[in-house]
Design brief:
This protein has 148 residues and is of the alpha+beta class. It has one domain (8-143): Aspartate Aminotransferase, domain 1 (Alpha-Beta Complex). The protein is 42% helix and 20% strand. It has helices at residues 8-13, 17-33, 82-86, 88-100, 122-130, 134-145, and strands at 39-43, 46-51, 65-73, 76-81, 111-114. Strands 1-2-3-4-5 form a five-stranded antiparallel β-sheet. A hairpin with a 2-residue loop joins strand 3 and strand 4. Helix 2 crosses helix 5 (122-130). The chain is globular and about 45 Å long. The N and C termini lie far apart (35 Å). 26% of the residues are buried.
């Protein structure tokens, strides 16, 4: 589900109270562990944490480089962790953490789907969000765009 809300505050205000509480909690978790240089803004109809074009304008789609995003979906929530998608070590780390915890991981390439806060390993999510500086993420992005 994509939102037409122009601001994060408007996005949150449009959610039902129980859904707002979940999204706000995950948003707070990301914001508390986000390295310096990323900005929070609405992007593609969801809350996004991006590298501003003023810092890095060379993106393939002329949009800010997306690091993470959060959305309330029809049947749950989605947390997009693009540094997990871009780095197999982080992907392996996240999958191993869920396996150690005996928890089911519902994840696509970067999209971690969950139905409640209890479905998230919040300490691991916090560590992954904190794991990549803007400079490291730009290097990962550029390496992915360079023909092998």
């Amino acid at each position: 589900m994509s939102s037409a809300a122009p601001t994060v505050s408007a996005y949150l205000a449009a959610l039902a109270p129980e859904r707002r509480a979940v999204v706000a909690a995950v948003r707070d978790l990301v914001n508390a562990h986000l390295p310096d240089g990323y900005v929070e803004e609405m992007a593609f109809g969801m809350i996004g944490w991006n590298i501003p074009l003023a810092r890095y304008p060379k993106t393939y789609n002329k949009q800010p480089l997306s690091y993470a995003a959060l959305a309330a979906q029809k049947n749950g929530y989605s947390l997009y962790l693009n540094c997990v998608y871009a780095d197999s070590e982080r992907d392996t780390r996240l999958r191993a953490a869920y396996a150690r915890a005996g928890r089911k991981l519902d994840m696509g390439k970067s999209c971690l789907r969950f139905k409640s806060l209890d479905d998230l390993l919040q300490d691991e999510i916090a560590a992954i969000v904190a794991s990549t500086s803007v400079e490291q993420y730009i290097a990962m992005y550029e390496a992915s765009r360079t023909p092998g």
